[in-house]
Request: fold
Amino acid sequence: MSACRTQIHLTVNGQQTAVEAPPMKRLLDVLREDLGLTGTKEGCGEGECGSCSVRMNGELVNSCLVPILQASDARIETVEGLAIDAELHPLQKAFLECGGAQCGICTPGMLIAATHLLAHNPNPSMDEIREGLAGNLCRCTGFIKIFESVIAAAAMRGLETRAR
Amino acid sequence: MRGDPENLELIAASSLPDVLAQMAAAPGSWTPIAGGTELMVAHAAGRLNAQKFISLWGLAELDFIRVQDDSISIGGGVTFGHIRSHAAIASDFPLLARAASWIGSIANQNRATLAGNIVNGSPAADAPPALLVYDAEIELISQRGSRRIPYADFHLGYKQSVLEPDELVLALHLPRRFSKHSQYLRKVGTRKAMAITKVALAGTAIVENGTIHEIRLAAASVADRPVRMIATEEALQGRWLTAATRNAARAVLLNEVRPIDDIRSTAEYRKHVAANLLDEFLAELNNRGSSG
Amino acid sequence: MTQNSAHNPKTRIVGTPQIRKEGVDKVLGRSKYVDDLEREGMWYGATVRSTIPRGKIREIHFDPGIDWSEFVIVTAADVPGTNHIQMISADQPCLVADTVNHCDEAIVLLAHPDKRRLPAAVAAVRIDYDPLPAVLSIEESETQQEIIWGGDNIFKQFHLEKGNVDEVWAIAAHIVEGEYRTGAQEHLYIENNGMIAEYSEADGVTVRGSLQCPFYVHKSLMAVFALPAEKVRVLQTETGGAFGGKEDYPSVLASHAGLLARKAGRPIKMVYDRMEDLAATTKRHPSRTRHRTAVDKDGKLLAMEIEIATDGGAYATLSSTVLSRATLHASGPYVCDNIRITSRAWATNTVPSGAFRGFGAPQSIFAIERHMEQIARAVGIDSTEIRRRNFLQTGDSTATEQIIHEPLILDALLDRALKESDYVARRSEFARENLHSPIKRGLGIASFYHGCGFTGSGERYLNSLAGIDVTPEGKARVLVSSTEFGQGTNTILTQIAAEALGLSYDEVEMAPCDTSLIPNSGPTVASRTSMVVGHLIERAGHQLITTLQEQAGLAAGYNREEFFAACELYREQYGKVESLCRYEAPPNVFWDDQKYRGEAYPTFGWAVYIAEVAVDITTYSAEVTNFCAVQEVGRVLNPTLAAGQIEGGVAQGVGYALYEKVLLKNGHMLNNQMTNYIMPTAADVPPIRVYFEEIPFAYGGFGAKGIGELPHDGPAPAILNAIQDATGENFTAIPLLPEDIFLRMIDCTPHEEPTVV
Reply:
């Protein structure tokens, strides 16, 4: 007995799109399989590692825990949407310069979590950075250079704002 | 991913009455799913028993925070992200706001709902101890109507509650009468974030002229369900806040709690840490009391 | 002739924080890991695993509720070559033939076009066993009442003897004994193991996947498929973390995927989910180390008697080399004329243990550094003094009677660590505060070394080949089998090549990691890449320049246009522009495998780490509040990447000490989910301050030594030394959980009033 596939409309990185999928298919799998956006990763399937992090209607969520039906008409942001044309997002630049990415598997989720953090708190304290990223596990860096990257990106954004 | 979404049904309805009607038509057939932070984990592990799900996500009738003069009502569909950042909740019910900030990670808080945390029925759940010491009432709703009972009467046993198969948790109502109370909440987990509770203690009390009044104590992971520590409260209610009282209460608590050994911790550790947390709360009461 | 660059530290690119070579793709989310890839017509594979730790298979039942005609089914009978994974021994079967030796051992493989159908199919294969008694711990194995491997359950043993230990006990002022234990540890790379395999009669077997050592996989596939070298091709996909967990296990997974691909006649992808990866793949060897030490009244080490036992799990895999490294690091960076070390790796019916960053050294360094604290206390001197009085100096000899010729600056490293951690002042402050606070604070020191490269004659045996070529399109490429998995292989090797060739960093890239295209520069393990392979690339670069000067008229002081023009001139004559170099052992490095004596390693990284902890007596929880890591690792090739290696290794060491516990029941991992296997989060890691001293090593890439594993050796003993400083309690086993601290600090018997100390 198989359930109906249903048509879901959603906006991904600014682009309106529609998929036909069983309603309990995970948003993570729809992004990776139906939409070919393999930047978002699966590390655990339990909502513990955060490598599947995306923003849904501006909120940070673990896409491995979202059934696609609940993403109906949602606005989804993934790592693929961070850079605009050839211009890297300040966080991406910072991760490159500060060594925030080593093996890179946690990096997409980490960037999304950091984007979310800075959107809500443009000048976070170290404790706020730690809390903001506590849902994203990195086994390579020990987090130190990720913290440095977020601080550097926050400073970059500050400069951009002041420059305007 | 061990679950097969092709074998599952998930429906959504545009209003709460429609959801309730669906549930009433076949009580127990439709498993409500809100933020999915428990059910989707079971789905991925291939451990979902249910096959038919009804989505509560985004239902406006469950997603409200109403601030009245004498109470705050929080809809069952409110996420912990919204609970922790709500100014009135943070000011009137700081223990609940704090508990909300300890659930999983920020990503989990943006999806996990108050009702989900309660109905999932884990004795380790983060919100219940705070709800218990705030004398919360829980409102359940079905097509048959709604009913309000003390939240303390909601859980009946391990993952068992008074919730009927056609019912949902509509709201939690918290009385706004704790602004003068001393308040305590501490969670002991396996690490500082993303930790399931090994043991937690919540407490509210007023100290007047050196005696303890209106003491409420509630704990996580010391029984088969979230519990008020009634016997321990009785050992403190109306007593002088002295070392003798503290030692006596400690002994009562050590007998009252019934924790288990499990994958995360041991019964003995949980017992003794619960007692230490009580000591810590009582010490804080003492310090606040003496400073007037 | 090799140019010795170690004396010339002025470099344009080496030593600078060049951006990670593959970094842009990583931050864009464009890097393709194995699960991001597909092949035309690909099916998916899954594994049916044993549910008992030891026994004979009586029968395999396929539940008739499944339409098995839709599936491809593979068992041991389908192995065309030898049914064994080639590591050091070839005892581990690719698939169980008749006898199961651990829980979660692979028995049946299934493939299907729809991966969602596989979990139900796996559950529908029921296996009947005749169980045999299982051995589940080192102690059980040591009784030898049940022999489960070889004739005596011993995968390997070593005996090292220096001087005359037995004559010393009688004259010692103090004899200090201790027993120290370390638990299993899971790598927890965020990318699970995965492979995609293809098979055809024409091309043989081709695998793409997450791995560290393409030629290890290549060798194993040759044997499993009975194919010659040119009919086996292994490619590395972008690998999301490894730490040794993808050193030998990929040979198992590649064989499985290959067998399914061969029978199915189509590509097969096998990617584990977290539960399977945790339960079924290798872990760090648990260990037990016993110390008996004689010291004089001043705390100088007179004799050390050390006994090491490791738990190798069900098959030999890498247990002999892990044991070797544990043995060679067991006596610490200290002078002692009389040393006896006996070590054994024991078989148990648990998932085979494997490589994990440090490879035996974290285990025995935990023991010696904890033991030094007890010695200090017995003698009545402090933690710094016990070390200073015993530190190796240049000219001293090690346990294997290797004379250390290189400059040794352990005292200076200790001085720097004490200064940067404000050790003296903070300890004083803590001693005062601890009297009145429920939070007890303390500081702890660990001093240690890590031998770089393969032990003894290992590098000669590997006989690595590596080099550089220049393509007609004007790209200089590094030709190595060394893999990137986050540590920075791609970056440092292209930095070295660019430096040696006089090109810019952006003009050099890595040749694809494909065994059909690259020479075998050895596995990416053992902290050998920057040192051994880096040196080969440096030599190859200089060799290419010399060749172009001699054969293509390249002038001294050439610019890049002239370089590429000379390459094209050379190509016209000789067809290709390629410079390969073969490993040459540094002079005066001799190792006697029989006597276990001589130059165990060509060089060592040296370190002093200081941990600061806070122990909360209310919850019995310990956390690391500050960490200072000072090390000498030769030339730092890239300061950002080097610091990143130290920080990451320290964080893993913190997990090893305080958080990460593998819970086994009947040999099966109970806590095989990320919810229950606890690694430190961003909220848990301490601030980690990293300092490098640089003493270039002449035979490393531009003076580099190895760095990858050193940082995992020091944190655990430093942390437990700090906990002893904070609480006075001597904890001798890790992981040290609050429940363990609780049991020590409370005296509690039934029916008695408990007292909190």
Notes: Strands of chain A lie at 6-12, 15-21, 53-56, 59-62, 75-77. Chain A has two domains: 6-81, 90-162.
